[in-house]
Amino acid sequence: MNNLSKKINIIFAGGGTGGHLYPLLAIADFLKSNNPEFNPIFVGASDRLEASVVPEAGYKFHSLWISGIIRKIDLRNLLLPFKFIYSFLKSYFLCLYYSPKIVVGSGAYVAGVFCAAAKFYGAKLVLLEQNVTPGLTNKKLSPYADLIVISYDESAKYFKSGNIRNLGNPIRHSVKIIPKAKAVKNFGLNEDRFTILVLGGSLGSEAINEIIFINLDRIITAGFQMIWQTGKSHISRYSKFGSPKVKILPYLDDVGIALSSADVVISRAGATTLAEFSALQIASILIPSPYVTDNHQYKNAKLLSDTNAAMLLNEKDAKANIFSILLELKKNPGKLELLRKNIGENANPEAASNIASEIIELAVRKKS
């Protein structure tokens, strides 16, 4: 890889959820590890995940006063034009201050406004699209992108123009598998008991929480143990149901340890989550969110289900069927091993490296 000059500024824009934020952090971490003098700069929303996670990672963070459209009649939507104008102007002045050669956007509304301002300023634009079906922000920005990085070949048809490369979805280098016997000790669980990990994404999922709550007694009576990540906004409702066999947490600071503890994971089907499952060969039961744009989580999960790389369960059927699927997997270790083997075939461990190389090449290339 070419060295990245400390004089070359790269700004990463995106967030809202871990799926938009963690790929940016993975690329920044890789660039930093290979170029110690390089200092990544992040831009995100002031009230979302990135506002705490990025500074904790040791990187500069600038916040924008911006939010998405509330999809119902709400007076707060009247503020959106003012938020956009303010955030666009702040974004432009940040570009004047830092003079970025490259801006990397990962979708979501905060990336939309910053990337638009950065392109107006004259920076080169790289877009990361993690899902099979691209989001609205990346679709709108794609004609102005110098590079569009996708994780699925099927995504290319949604972009009418641009330099499109399938380089994979980068994952955090800190997410690693350790032996189960060591991992479960962090939760006070029994290494010999079949362990379920419940994930609702970085913000938690009330629908998945309800599915687990309805089935909790049967699951524990059947001999399972569980690590249940509820999300910070849901923990107050469910924390009282914790027990020696049920560890209930608002958020997982080290998801690698939790994944290492699990025989199977119940999860949403965000693309970044699935990239981590692929890299670490995690057996999963996927319950896609039906509330996301273009039903993209279902499409993500269906690609894996069709190759026997994950179990797919629609949210509307999950309360009735999750317990029987768990019992099936507990009784059939061979099925679990097949899921692990097949999902591992989708792994792209060089994604962060490959994307970083493309970014550096783009940064040093003179405009034609």
Largest sheet: 7 strands, parallel
Helix-strand sequence:
EHEHEHEHEHEEHEHEHEHEHEHEHHH
Number of helices: 14
* Cα shape: globular
Descriptive overview:
- 42% of the residues lie in helices and 14% in strands.
- The chain has helices at 18-34, 50-56, 80-98, 109-121, 136-141, 180-183, 206-221, 235-238, 255-261, 271-280, 296-305, 315-331, 333-344, 351-364; strands at 10-13, 41-45, 60-64, 102-105, 124-129, 147-150, 164-166, 195-198, 225-229, 246-249, 264-267, 284-286, 311-312.
- Strands 3-2-1-4-5-6-7 form a seven-stranded parallel β-sheet, sandwiched between helices. Strands 10-9-8-11-12-13 form a six-stranded parallel β-sheet, sandwiched between helices.
- The model has no long low-confidence stretch (mean pLDDT 90).
- With 368 residues, it is an alpha/beta fold.
- Helix 1 crosses helix 14 (351-364) and helix 3 (80-98) crosses helix 4 (109-121).
- The longest helix has 19 residues, at 80-98.
- The chain has two domains: 10-169 and 349-364, Rossmann fold (3-Layer(aba) Sandwich), CATH 3.40.50.2000; 180-344, Rossmann fold (3-Layer(aba) Sandwich).
- The protein has 14 helices and 13 strands.
